[in-house]
Amino acid sequence: MAEEIKRFNFNQVAADLGYVAEDGPGGPGGRPAGGPGGPGGKPAGGPPQFPTDPESIRRNSLRFQKMWPDERSMALQDYFNDYVASGEPIEFEGHSICWAMIALQQKLRANKVLMYMPPFGKSLDLVPMRRVAEPKDNPMMKFDVTEQGDDVRIVVTLLGGGNPDPFQMSLGDVEIKEIGAGKNIWLELVGAHYLFMFDFPKTFGGDCNTMYYKEGGETWYCVASNDPAVRVGDKPAKSPFEA
User: Fold this and answer.
1) Cβ of 105: how many Cβ atoms within 10 Å?
2) CA 176 to CA 134: how far, in whole Å?
3) pTM of the model
4) What are phi and psi of 74, to 5 degrees?
5) Better-scored residue on pLDDT, 159 or 3
6) What are the tens digits of pLDDT across the range 129-182?
7) Which of 3, 85, 137, 170 has its CA 20 to 30 A from that of 112?
8) Bigger pLDDT: 192 or 38?
């Protein structure tokens, strides 16, 4: 008998947290968009295309900052405490702001986590990427890894015009350069498919010191911490790789 997995749509999660609809259909607490490829809608019938130019990405990030400001994003982490305690599998549809989603994956790192992709009509299993000394090329993305003492910068560049098909291969077959334990990881994304950032906690979240993500190219957020002096949601002014 197949294991039953409960699916959470982030619109409904927002409603459960008491937030009203914003920015029209599909906003927190609002009705699902229902269109092709939208939350609650039918598969679009082909790979989705997301805006990849930096300005569109920045505007989209600002929209989600309005929908999921810091206090809501932190409340989102506690919403799933029962699943963390039980270790039950969980499936998501839709999304909140990206940094909070990455932090949530760190919180649920020991759980089986699926991401339902309406444009494809199926779910992607968030399993750890393969950490190897000499990674081979991947068809979906390339990683530029720069180490500087205890800090590591990882720039993720999405291939396929910045919109790779996430089902080209299992994330478990994606290879990334091994990073030693106890490092501070600084993540940046070139492209629009935030989904590929959600797997970093599964990959490095267990033995890194801290992990940060630059939201919308503007604000750094701590998305994972094994350091008692650093909290998820902390916002350093800049990374060690910035002047």
Assistant:
1) 23
2) 8
3) 0.85
4) -70, -35
5) 159
6) 999 999 999 999 999 999 999 999 999 999 988 888 899 999 999 999 999 999
7) 137
8) 192
Residue among 73, 66, 64 nearest 13 (CA): 73
**Integer CA distances (angstroms), 62 to 65, 125, 167, in order:** 5, 28, 28
Tokens representing 138 are 């991947």
Pairing of strands 184-190, 175-177: unpaired
Structure-token pair, residue 155: 């720039």
Is residue 14 within 8 A of residue 79, CB to CB? The reply is no
SS3 state at 41: coil
The DSSP secondary-structure symbol of 195 reads: G
CA distances from 161 to 48, 59, 238 (A): 12, 19, 29
Q: What is the pLDDT of residues 43-76, one digit of tens each?
A: 444 555 666 666 776 677 777 777 788 999 999 9
- CA 211 to CA 206: how far, in whole Å? 11
How is residue 106 written in tokens?
């760190």
